[in-house]
Design brief:
By secondary structure, this protein is mainly alpha-helical. Helices cover about 65% and strands about 0% of the residues. The protein contains 16 helices and 2 strands.
Length: about 375
Amino acid sequence: MTSGKLARIKSGARVDSLDIMRGFSMFWLIGGAAIVGELALHSSIGGLDGLATQMKHASWVGLRFFDLIFPFFIFASGATIPYSILRMKQKGVSNFKIAFKALRRALVLLFIGVMYNEWTSHNFANPRLCSVLAQIGVSYFICVIIYLVSPRSNRLLASAIGIMLLIAGLQILMPGSSLSEEIYPGNNINSLIDSALVPGRLLNGTFDPEGPLNWISASTLCLFGAWTSNQLATTQERNLRFRRKVILPFVTGVMLVLVGLIADSHYSIIKALWTSSFCAVSGGISILFYSTLYGIADVKNIKKPFYLFKVIGSNSLLAYLATRLFGYAQFTNALGSYASRSFSIETNLFVMILTALTTISLLHFLYRKKIFIKV
């Protein structure tokens, strides 16, 4: 384990900044991005087209705000690892059982991801096996194994950088690819691996943006999260002030962003392939974001402004699954469409708002009842 003990373990309290970060990510996925984008498109205020663009993924090369949402979530899942492993260690759980639990979690999320993909189409004869949930589960498992082998902060950071270099090598050195040429959907190692090894349906035909190589790439975000928790929440022999402990994460975050942006001129930032330049930029921003949230919510104990995000983040898996699991989208679609016709507004804004409010209301009810669903 780490040289010091992680804060808040003995009390069993949730780490507020992690719930807030997960909730912030899920807020945009359950309707926040769609609502903001729709408002920007139909606003009479000029210059908001750019805001609407940021609420969608980059088509291939480039980075937009919405491209950071999934990395934020994976980073947050990694940031929980030091807490959860130390808590299990305090209960006498062996490394083998911890690793097995992480593997079981990955397989369960893989299964749920397939069910989510095929929930409406029922295309189980040719299912899409890759999913957001599978990527979360496998990247978390990889990070847990590395953390169990060596939880030292410098080795976590070295492991993340090593994986990024490995992925960069595979993507750049693939036959037909080089630093002097752009990576295209048809000439990348991700496409080759997905087409050759992944059974079933691929989202983009020749490759899947949540394919196996991306699972490995995403583990770097998990490792950055675990490393940051070690830095921020570990009480050293000398009780350092938070302002001193946060210096290294902030410097590291800025350096990662700069490295990713510099690399982008020859090795493009591509979220669909989780290129190492994308992982560096998104990882750096995640470190800066989490460090800031930790300082505000867990150190300064300022939580009220983030209440909505904490409610959503406390049941993030259910937030992601809710509309398909409970099937209320059909009702909100009908009611929202009726409202649009009544006010003679040609937009899906009412549908988006009603669906998001229904999801948030469900999550708030469970939060008040202290019901937290997790895998």
